[in-house]
Amino acid sequence: MTKIVYKYNISRLNRKRRRHSNFRASAYRSRCPNERRWHLSRRDAIATLGAAAGLTFPRSNLATSERADDSTGLQTACDIADAVRHCKVSAVELLDRSLARIEVTNGRLNAFVYLDPDGTAARRIDEQVRRGADADLLAGVPLGVKDLDDCAGLPTSQGSLFDKNSPATADFPSSAEARAAGAVPVSKTAAPEFGTHSITWSLAWGTTRNPWARR
């Protein structure tokens, strides 16, 4: 008998909670009939909050000027792969341009920790295109792999001094899938030690800076 009464009381309490929750929601909608949900990017949200506080966040000249220096006119991975498939640009040329851009900017940004100048994968993709074979979805797209994931042929330090010079012998699943789709690994990008921090800083590599706000 006690068990039945207990279940009845719990059920009754849950019904009250649901009614109360529905009442609060309907009351909010009646007070705010024009309420809309806005989906902001993190950068837009920070700018909005900063404006409310009387702050401004100027864009860095580094990000705008150096992005304007890219003469390919290719904005997305789909654009790049499409250009490679239609012989508008070669995978080897994209690899060389990526490495050249990294050399120019990385001293100030510290975003790349290992480079892979070997053009074997890029040459294979170019040969595939020349033969008229169907190129893969990400054909020739330069890829930076986070230094938390293995990419065969490149070390994986995970931002740690202990594993700084340990080359990977196999690909992490995401790296393997990207490579199978035609992407060309160019570099390993910096990561906090073992991925445990909310900012990209480690004793092994130092601090990675934001090209939009290099402070």
Any overview of this molecule?
The chain is mainly α. It is built from seven helices and five strands; from the N terminus they run αααααβαβαβββ. It has helices at 2-31, 42-52, 61-68, 77-85, 91-109, 120-130, 173-180, and strands spanning 112-115, 142-146, 184-189, 201-202, 206-207. Strands 1-3-2 form a three-stranded mixed sheet. The chain starts with a helix and ends in an 8-residue tail after the last strand. The relative contact order is 0.12.
Q: What amount of the residues lies in strands? A: 5-15%
What is the count of DSSP helices, taking H or I runs of 4+ residues? 7
- CA radius of gyration is 26 Å
Q: Biggest β-sheet: count, sense, barrel?
A: 3 strands, mixed
Q: Runs with pLDDT <50, length 5+?
A: 1-8, 23-40, 48-66
Q: What order do the SSEs take from the amino end to the carboxyl end, as H and E?
A: HHHHHEHEHEEE
* Morphology call: globular
Instruction: Give the overall pLDDT as a whole number.
Output: 77
Report the structural category.
mainly alpha
Strand order of the largest sheet: 1-3-2
Q: What proportion of the residues is helical, as a percent range?
A: 40-55%
Amino- and carboxy-terminal Cα gap: 69 Å
The number of E-state strands comes to 5
